[in-house]
Automatic annotation (TrEMBL):
Organism: Roseobacter litoralis (strain ATCC 49566 / DSM 6996 / JCM 21268 / NBRC 15278 / OCh 149)
Lineage: Bacteria, Pseudomonadati, Pseudomonadota, Alphaproteobacteria, Rhodobacterales
Taxonomy, superkingdom: Bacteria
Family: Belongs to the HIBADH-related family.
Name listed for the protein in its UniProt record: 3-hydroxyisobutyrate dehydrogenase
Record's keyword annotation contains Chloroplast: no
């Protein structure tokens, strides 16, 4: 018997999975056969729609067949798995973007690879036995096959909950979470499929649909949204540990079974995807970054061993204490450069980028663009360069013929000088993308000059520091026209996790200085609070456990804690080696007060923060240290 039955009826392309004894798990060959059929039917006018179903009562498809992945991985052959995932993800994208209706009937288990087959079409039908889940973290993977797209679109923080716990959704829950569309009693499926084969419109499915009954997820959502709101896995774990409730206890048990690295990476991917730039291509690209590395650097082989091979259910996970360093997640999700997943979206592969300013931030940003396959020409007055970047002798030499000129410069005066040099030699319609943090007036002045020259301009200062630049996890605050922002978007996707179009030119700089004024003031307050806690005899870890889950919650506390060996890893754990240098905070606070003065805004806290950092950097020992090094400054001082 074949593993899959593919045929064409009168008006339908028909795909039936035929491995009921293996819960219809999809093999590599099945994947390639399905893709070939879809390619053929897309151009066949006789095929009105595609119908997917499966033999047996237990499962539509319980996932991919991972036995061969384990065998090849243990032999040191990671290329087989990497190719399997690349081809499978290409199939998932084709189903999602297919030009004709794709109808799936999802009985029993639909998990992992089954979600990629059955949950990206236009009409996803569930019944009484349906159980849909993304349990990949249980074997050391993240939810993949485009599943992160659905999770990112799920209500509230449902996506984080489903992705990390592997919760199995019955019909009502699957519809609520966005994995299915219609509940139809399973005794009607055979007749409906026959009608579809005969040319009936998919509208007959809505006519046959019934209410799915009550689900559980909607009732759980308030708790899920509350406890899964943290930026990182550690935040979620800490929050759950502080609560004495059945939900918290049951959820912790589920999380403690799964790979911490996979769960932490799942949360990071969902946070990167959410927003206006969400797409199937972006979801699959991030999934592939992880799966490409999963056997060699992740927990996948150990997860398969414990679950499938030895079946001892006792995997030896990395970071078993659930404290996953941010750098570990970043390494799993870094761009793959020439090994990146290739789908239909190849917008930037032939683009030439001129990158001016290859310092601590600019060099890793430029390197990530080069790794993604772009032709990057770089220039820096100090003569520095970056991996994969072709050096130029001058800024004007680098800018000639470039599709995009990107700058990362120290201040507004230098930005104006660079713009005066490169704008006249840029080709018409090209984009000048400035990622520096400068004064608003300078950004707007360069924007006017670019417009007069027939060029696009975006000011897009960044948040995330040197670590974010290296990991490709920066946040961009962009100002400029909609057309300019759209042109810059593919670069944002490579270099960062999020880009927000804040408004017209200068709005990006305005957002950055407002953000960093908050950051500077809250970091000072956080350091003062730790110093006070020390003098009151309060243990720092206890303080963190309270404040990180209470009204004192802030990014400075929860994600960048200034106290060594407390909370997630931060520069405090590395003797305050800068992730964001104190002198850069001083610069940004100076810009905020310059802007406040220009528009007559009252910002007393911002002014006080500026004075504190000026004293720290210029009169004390803050120069060259991280901006969170304010903590030892306060612990050594008393009231003046």
């Amino acid at each position: 018997m074949p593993d899959i039955v593919i045929r064409q009826t009168a008006h339908a392309g028909r795909i039936t999975l035929a491995r009921p004894d293996a819960l219809n798990a999809m093999t590599y060959d099945m994947c390639l056969q399905i893709e070939a059929a879809l390619d053929s039917w897309a151009k066949d006018d006789d095929v009105q729609h595609v119908v997917l179903d499966a033999q047996g009562d237990k499962a539509f498809c319980a996932g991919g067949d991972i036995a061969q992945l384990y065998d090849t991985g243990m032999a040191g052959d990671f290329a087989f798995g990497q190719q399997f995932w690349a081809d499978e993800y290409r199939l998932n994208a084709k189903i999602f973007n297919y030009p004709k209706p794709v109808i799936s009937f999802l009985q029993g288990f639909t998990m992992g690879g089954g979600v990629g087959l059955g949950c990206h079409g236009t009409h996803r039908v569930v019944g009484e036995t349906s159980r849909i889940a993304m349990p990949e973290c249980g074997i050391g993977l993240i939810p993949d096959v485009g599943g992160t797209l659905i999770l990112a679109l799920a209500p509230g923080r449902i996506g984080e909950y489903l992705g990390t716990t592997g919760y199995r959704m019955a019909a009502a829950d699957a519809i609520f979470a966005g994995f299915a569309d219609l509940f139809v009693p399973q005794d009607q499926w055979f007749d409906l499929i026959q009608q579809l084969e005969d040319g009936a419109s998919p509208d007959i499915l809505a006519q046959a649909a019934q209410a799915p009954g009550d689900g559980l997820l909607s009732a759980l959502q308030p708790d899920i949204d509350k406890y899964f709101a943290g930026e990182r896995l550690g935040d979620i774990i800490t929050t759950l540990q502080q609560v004495d409730s059945d939900f918290a206890k049951d959820t912790l048990k589920l999380l403690q079974r799964n790979s911490p690295l996979a769960m932490a990476s799942t949360i990071e991917v969902l946070h990167r995807l959410r927003g206006p730039t969400l797409s199937m291509a972006k979801a699959l690209d991030h999934e592939y970054r992880f799966t490409y590395r999963a056997m060699e650097h992740g927990d996948l082989l150990e997860g398969i061993r414990a679950a499938i091979i030895d079946k001892d259910r006792r995997p030896k996970w990395q970071y078993a204490d659930l404290r996953v360093p941010a750098i570990a997640v970043s390494k799993m999700l870094m761009p793959l450069g020439k090994n990146a997943l290739t789908l239909e979206d190849v917008r930037m592969t032939k683009t030439t980028v001129c990158f001016i300013g290859l310092g601590n931030m600019g060099a890793p940003m430029a390197a990530n663009l080069a790794k993604a396959g772009l032709h990057v020409i770089g220039y820096d007055t100090a003569g520095t360069t970056a991996e994969g970047v072709t050096p130029a002798q001058s800024a004007t030499d680098a800018a000639q013929g470039a599709d995009i000129v990107l700058s990362m410069l120290p201040n507004g005066a230098i930005l104006r000088d660079v713009a005066a040099a490169v704008l006249p030699v840029m080709k018409p319609g090209a984009l000048f993308l400035d990622c520096s943090t400068v004064d608003v007036d300078s950004a707007r002045a360069v924007a006017r000059d670019a417009q007069d020259a027939g060029l696009l301009f975006v000011d897009a200062p960044v948040s995330g520091g040197i670590g974010g630049a290296a990991a490709g996890t920066l946040t961009f605050m962009a100002g400029g026209s909609a057309a300019a922002f759209e042109t810059a978007q593919p670069l944002f996707d490579i270099m960062g996790q999020k880009a927000v179009h804040c408004g017209d030119a200068g709005a990006g700089q305005a957002a950055k200085i407002c953000n960093n004024m908050i950051l500077g003031a809250t970091m000072i307050a956080t350091c003062e609070a730790f110093a006070l806690a020390d003098k009151l005899g309060l243990d720092r870890q206890k303080m963190f456990d309270v404040v990180s889950t209470s009204s004192g919650y802030s990014w400075s506390m929860n994600a960048y804690c200034p106290a060594p060996n407390v909370g997630p890893q931060s520069p405090a754990d590395n003797d305050y080696t800068p992730g964001f240098a104190a002198e850069l905070m001083l610069k940004d606070l100076g810009l905020s007060q310059q802007a406040a003065e220009a528009v007559n805004a009252d910002t007393p806290m911002g002014a006080l923060a500026l004075a504190q950092y000026r004293a720290f950097v210029e009169d004390e020992d803050g120069l060259g240290k991280d901006f969170s090094a304010m903590l030892p400054r306060f612990t050594s001082r008393g009231r003046i």
